[in-house]
Structures are given as structure tokens and as C-alpha cells.
Amino acid sequence: MSRITIRDIDAMKSNNEKIVMLTAYDYGASRIADSLNIPILLVGDSLGNVILGYQNTVPVKLEDIVYHTRAVVRGSDKAMIVADMPFMTYKTDPSEGLRNAARCIQDGGAHAVKLEGGEEITPTVKRIVDAGIPVMGHVGLTPQSVNAIGGYRVQGKVKSSALKLIRDAESLQESGVFALVMELIPSAVAGIITKRLSIPTIGIGAGPYCDGQVQVWHDLLGLSEEFTPKHARKFANLAEVIREAINRYVSEVKDGTFPNDDESFTVDETLVDELEKSLD
User: Fold this and answer.
1) Catalytic option among 116, 183, 226, 252
2) What gap in Å lies between CA 158 and CA 103, rounded to an integer?
3) CATH assignment of 6-236, among 3.20.20.60, 3.40.50.2300, 3.30.70.240, 3.30.499.10
């Protein structure tokens, strides 16, 4: 099977086929997701929260994204790999945005990049797209702007902000994005945007009317115990499974039942005798 491309993603919308996107940050996760034919893997700057232990995504550096993208690409044969462009790597000017996007593609091996923002970033989006790099947009809650918007708040709850979201989405489509992530916006607003756009929309906390959905690996699998967002559904509780397995390991090491002879490498008894005699 060949790699998923932006044409395949566009065809999924045309065929009313729901698009599944999932974050991945390492080789192992990528291998598992790819074996399940997940079409899009996002190396999200959410790695700042779930992998690096930051309180938000702002401290994530371009080097972090490139490093983790390389690992995810090595683990995948089929999925389109999208790299998040971190805080302040594309908002100062279009030329810098293009240089940093190129690093995600050339050094990281990504197949596309994702940028947060609306109308204000369209010159940068167009510059990157014109250079031959596919861009995924991201509107609604934009976590890199968490300090400016006063926390993780639902966006588009009143007419003025909802209209701005619609304008942002349409401007991004005009600038050339191949898909649009919508985060933490009312489902009715997400539905209006999805109907108005010809490109696929992918929701996270944006309700069921989007063309697809994205979830964070650690939220979906129940690996994040401190906080689970309202819009995330735990499909497993792996943190508890892992804790139980480690507790068993600790117990068996302490009581001497791990490892046993069947789990050990053995040698011929004559070698043991020879070693003991040579050491006498």
C-alpha cells in the first residue's frame, strides 16, 4: 500500500468517509497506528504536555518536533505524517515560516505541516503551499495562544466570534490548506464551517459534524491520569494496566520468582565445571 496523500484525504470527504487522525510521538506508537491503517498521524506539539511534562505547548521547540517526527516516520509505511509547527516558528514573517516548514519536511521527514491561526497567517500559509509543502490549518482553540486567550476556553460561542471562525476557515481554504482542524468550538458552528468548505474538516472537541476526528494518543488510551479533557473519550485505561504490570514485576523480583531458569541463558555443565576449576 502506498502512502496516503492529500488527494486521498480529499477523496474521503467527497465519498463521505469519516477521516481518522491520531497523534503519535514515537516509533512504537507509529507502528501500532500504521498497522491499523490510520490515514493521518499528527506529531503534535501536544508532546510538550504528554511527553515532555510542560504545562502547555508553548515551550516546545522546532528541534523537538523534528526529532519526534523522524521517529514516527520510521515507524510508518502508509500514513500521512503531519508535523505541528511550534510556537513562534512561523508568525514573525512568511520567509521564516517557510524555512521552518522546510525543516519539518527535509530533516523530519514529514509529509505536511500544521499551523495554528486564522486570517493573520494566510500570507505564510500561501508562501509555504506555493513552495510545494502541504499545509493543514487549525482554528478555534489554538493552544499556542493559551496565554493570550486566557486558558483553554471554547471558542465561537457568540455571534461575533463564530463569524470570525467562519471567516478564518474560508481564508485558510483560499490560501491553500488541504484540511482544517477545528478545536473546542460548538458543534453547530463546526457543522456550518464543514458545509461551507470544500476541504475536509477534522474536529477535536468540535462535535460530530466534522469530516473527521483527531485525538491525543495518551487521552484515547487512558495514559494521562492528571487531566482528561471533556472532549476526549478514554477507550482504555492503560495507565492502570501498566501500573499493575510494574507492581507484579517489582513483586517477582523481590521474591525471587523472576527470572527463572527457563528465562535465562544456559551453558553446558562442563563449561561451568571448567570455569570453577580454573578459578580455584
Assistant:
1) 183
2) 38
3) 3.20.20.60
